[in-house]
Design a protein that fits this description.
42% of the residues lie in helices and 15% in strands. With 330 residues, the protein is of the alpha+beta class. The chain is globular.
């Protein structure tokens, strides 16, 4: 089934000051932890009721989810960093993340300057359907090495996997490229350091495709995206153009996340992932990665979030953070 447009003094006074100083240090430490992890942070859990994008990856539960999320985006202002450079993941972004439940990790790479910014500790998180981009690049690289063009059936599966986020198509291509070992080999050649492909597709106690349990970091996703927008030895210009054309044409209900706050005239090529992590359906993995270009901006962005109380909550978090990045990179 396809998922279709799917944060001197008296002795007694001296002692009081010392106690107060310790308290201030402890409070500062707590603020720093909350800034990085956000309140109520939870680690991913893999119980028997976990599901990777139920309903064959049909996207947010309502067709208006993306529009609802984007309509609520506000635009906090940020002060320029020293030297006049704007840090899109600086103090304003950190303040925002500290107000959100769960764990948020992000990376931004500015193609104009070659600068990279990061937010969060960078602990690997489950990919959900973001892994489909890795599957696509592995497929293209394998076909390129063999000198064979994508078959008609490969193109149909690739379109379904990326544009519709179809799970069955992804499973077919996962096996076709050689599974975890082949994807691991491609990732090594591409320079991904902390991405671990899932060892199973039919995982015990897991009712959905296990490739969604592949783990990654925002920095690794930036490396993967750079392979699509910069000339390299792994993918030809034609292959890169083809992959980007799929990412630029995802079904409308899935055009949320790193596209948050980005005007319609800009080019957006993205892949999203969403994954409920428990039986209660109140702990979600929500991810979004992509390339944004237009209005003097040209950058890559990857955001991974876990511990979201609802699917829409995670979407809102990424939409808001993405809007701040867009504004700050002007």
């Amino acid at each position: 089934m396809r998922g279709r447009h799917s944060s001197g003094v008296p002795a007694g006074a001296a002692a009081l000051f010392a106690v107060a100083g310790v308290g201030l240090l402890l409070a500062a430490g707590l603020v720093a932890i909350l800034t990085l992890r956000g309140p109520g942070a939870q680690q991913p859990r893999r119980g028997g009721a976990v599901a990777t994008e139920p309903g064959s990856s049909s996207g947010p539960r309502t067709a208006s989810a993306a529009a609802t999320a984007n309509s609520g985006v506000t635009r906090p202002s940020a002060s320029p960093a020293p030297g006049g450079d704007q840090d899109p993941l600086g103090s304003v972004a950190l303040s925002y993340v500290s107000s959100r439940a769960g764990v948020v990790a992000a990376a931004v790479y500015d193609l104009r300057t070659g600068r990279t910014w990061r937010l969060g500790a960078g602990q690997p998180q489950d990919e959900a359907s973001v892994v489909k981009l890795d599957v696509l690049e592995t497929l293209l690289a394998e076909r390129g090495r063999s000198g064979a063009a994508l078959s008609a059936s490969d193109r149909v599966l690739a379109e379904q996997m990326i544009e519709d986020s179809d799970n069955d198509a992804a499973t077919s291509l996962w096996y076709e490229v050689g599974g975890a070992s082949s994807i691991r080999s491609f990732n090594s050649a591409a320079g991904l350091a902390l991405t671990a492909p899932s060892s199973c597709v039919n995982c015990p106690g897991f009712p959905w495709p296990g490739w969604g349990l592949t783990t990654t970091t925002p920095s690794d996703q930036i490396v993967l995206l750079r392979a699509l927008v910069e000339p390299n030895s792994l993918l030809t210009n034609a292959e890169r153009s083809y992959a980007l054309s799929l990412l630029e044409n995802v079904t409308p209900t899935q055009r949320w996340g790193v596209s948050g706050g980005v005007p319609a005239q800009a080019t957006v090529a993205l892949k999203n992932g969403w994954l409920p992590l428990n039986r209660a359906d109140n702990d979600w993995q929500i991810n979004s990665v992509g390339w944004i270009s237009g209005s003097g901006r040209n950058y890559l962005i990857a955001v991974l979030t876990t511990g979201n109380p609802t699917e829409q909550y995670g979407i809102d978090t990424i939409n808001q953070l993405a809007a701040m990045v867009w504004d700050d990179l002007a």
